[in-house]
């Protein structure tokens, strides 16, 4: 362990944690104003509910030795997770860093179910999904599970985070069904500046996500960092051109979306490919997501904030292209991809992506159906019409306070202090 | 001529507009207002402060129509705005003394009739 490694990973952990509130703002700007707080809270709640689930149980299931499919219970309640080295950093720090990934992954799913899911049902979903779906998948890829042994490359979580969240999001959108106004009324973003701010903060945090996945302050972190800068730049450029060609106007919501798609696509590849390849991945990733967004809005699938188009397609394209562009000359711990004489790697990447989709999809479906037996997953349509902020949280994002009557447990003037009455004597002078 | 003033729920305004356009009522203006019509008050809490919201968000429509258009207009608003719960809103029909179209200086009935209807294109 060196001070440099520890210092960088402390910073990287904080960066990734910031991504979750950033995601809340990114999503929040895209919903109607009556649902702003609810959408924000779906991300914020994850900090607590997924964060605790991670420390108590999920970390052990993901990174305990276990077998090829699941870790073990050796580290529950963080037992044995101390300041000794795990790789190049203290074990506790490694646990915390991985925890920030679990937190944002489940929060990503919320984009598919905003404006209608009952908040209490969502609170139950958060820790259970982290334990039942995220932990095993993290074990498969990073905890020495079967995908790791197979040689699947996933530098910072294209499969574990993005494909996983998108498959869960697709299933969740189908299980909950569309919003009552979906495809009947135009549902427009209420605050595009917040969405752009969220995208900017996500990019900033993503440097911790990708460069931090080197798990030490080394050349690999520098490579992942630069690739994280270049790939979204390429996606943004292509996205802008597609917007220009289609409508003649470059949209702000589109640009914010393009940045996120580029970040998603580079995630699995960040530490395995050359910067030139990062530009290529970023540029290529724009196409499927761009057209999927246009197509999805014409369907009955109310994946409200397009988790599938952005994270599912972006993540899958990134995962497969990792198997095309990866080079051992950039990272000797990786593998050569299709373009460098190893077509098998691309096949492994496809297999890993499909395995993640199926696992996440099936388990998320079962979990939501199970929760639905005890708590209705949706609010009633009246509460949905009123807005989730008032119906679920008893707060409004934007209120002037007109007509708000203060409720007090006891009246402050129950025992009024005697009012001193000035003696009405004739004033002098 | 009458001035139809309607106060409706914000989440029903799109339904109201849709049914008004279907009834060929064009020319209207809306504003966001706060109102109270006997519905249950919402209790909200901000840190230690608990408040009862006596006023809820509403949308007010103002539509100037010629006499024979009053009934279809009112019908269309009711059709779009009704949920059956307390708080659906009100419609007021007021006499309207004079109307001018600013662009042409036309008055009264000619001023409240949409341009494309006058030109026979409707």
Topology:
The complex is a heterodimer of chains A (429) and B (122).
Chain A: H1 3-30, H2 36-63, E1 85-86, E2 89-90, H3 91-109, H4 119-142, H5 146-150, H6 158-176, H7 192-211, H8 219-247, H9 252-266, H10 275-296, H11 307-325, H12 343-374, H13 381-386, H14 388-393, E3 404-407
Chain B: E1 2-8, H1 13-22, E2 29-35, E3 42-46, E4 49-53, E5 56-65, H2 70-81, E6 89-95, H3 108-112, H4 115-118
Antiparallel strand pairs in B: 1-5, 1-6, 2-5, 3-4
Brief description of this entry?
The complex is a heterodimer of chains A (429) and B (122). Chain A is mainly α and 429 residues long. Chain A has a single domain (3-393), classed as Ammonium transporter AmtB like domains (Ammonium transporter fold).
Supply database-style keywords.
heterodimer; A: 429 residues; mainly alpha; two-stranded antiparallel ribbon; 2% strand; B: 122 residues; alpha+beta; four-stranded antiparallel β-sheet; elongated
Q: Your description of this structure?
A:
Chain A has one domain (3-393): Ammonium transporter fold (Orthogonal Bundle), CATH 1.10.3430.10. Chain A is 63% helix and 2% strand. Chain A is built from 14 helices and three strands. Chain A has helices spanning 3-30, 36-63, 91-109, 119-142, 146-150, 158-176, 192-211, 219-247, 252-266, 275-296, 307-325, 343-374, 381-386, 388-393, and strands at 85-86, 89-90, 404-407. In chain A, a hairpin with a 2-residue loop joins strand 1 (85-86) and strand 2 (89-90). The longest helix of chain A has 32 residues, at 343-374. Chain A is globular. Chain A starts with a helix and ends in a 22-residue tail after the last strand. With 122 residues, chain B is of the alpha+beta class. Chain B has one domain (2-118): 2-Layer Sandwich (Alpha-Beta Plaits), CATH 3.30.70. Chain B has helices at 13-22, 70-81, 108-112, 115-118; strands at residues 2-8, 29-35, 42-46, 49-53, 56-65, 89-95. The relative contact order of chain B is 0.29. The mean pLDDT of chain B is 88. At the A-B interface, helix 13 and strand 3 of A face strand 3 and strand 4 of B. Strand 3 of chain A pairs antiparallel with strand 4 of chain B.
